[in-house]
Specification:
about 70 residues, mainly alpha, 1 helix, about 95% helix
Length: about 70
């Protein structure tokens, strides 16, 4: 009887710890994906801003607006 209770408790604790481990892995993966997306968006935004400045500079040089 005591052996059966010990087995049930061990299985319960094992299931809970596995669930906690899986949740931790999911959270870590989610944070890594967010960091990657944030970096990618920053790169794309930087490229767009540089492109706009280059276009404005070309327009100023070609049309002679700058002086």
């Amino acid at each position: 009887m005591y052996l059966l209770i010990a087995v049930i408790v061990a299985v319960f604790i094992g299931m809970r710890s596995e669930r906690a481990r899986q949740a931790h892995m999911n959270w870590a993966s989610y944070k890594a994906r967010l960091a990657t997306m944030r970096g990618l968006r920053m790169k794309e935004t930087t490229k767009a801003v540089v492109g706009v400045f280059a276009l404005v500079a070309m327009v100023i040089v070609i049309t002679g607006i700058g002086g």
